Amino acid sequence: MDVVSSSDNIVHLKTSGADDSFFLFKADxxxxxxxxxxxxxxxxxxxxxxxxxRAMEYxxxxxxxxxxxxxxxxxxxxxxxxxxxxxxxxxxxxxxxCGG
Length: 100
Description:
The chain has 100 residues and is of the alpha+beta class. Helices cover 13% and strands 31% of the residues. The protein has one helix at residues 49-61, and strands at residues 2-6, 10-14, 22-25, 43-47, 66-67, 78-81, 87-92. The longest helix has 13 residues, at 49-61. The radius of gyration is 15 Å and the shape is globular.
């Protein structure tokens, strides 16, 4: 992966020729899924608007655990918990042709 940018607290990586991003953040204390800000550990995925809407229906229908992240500004995104306890962020990306 190529380094897009970096600072004392964040490194942004990207695969050359691909439409991905990988961010590493330096935590300011113990990390956990229930934390917020620079202590909130999760995996994030940007998906098409249609797939985001389908995911929201599935999440509600199947009572999947939703996590709150008070550090985020209002917008269209959701943090859920997978069966292994990992926090997953889903966020629609306008014009996304990523299919996932």
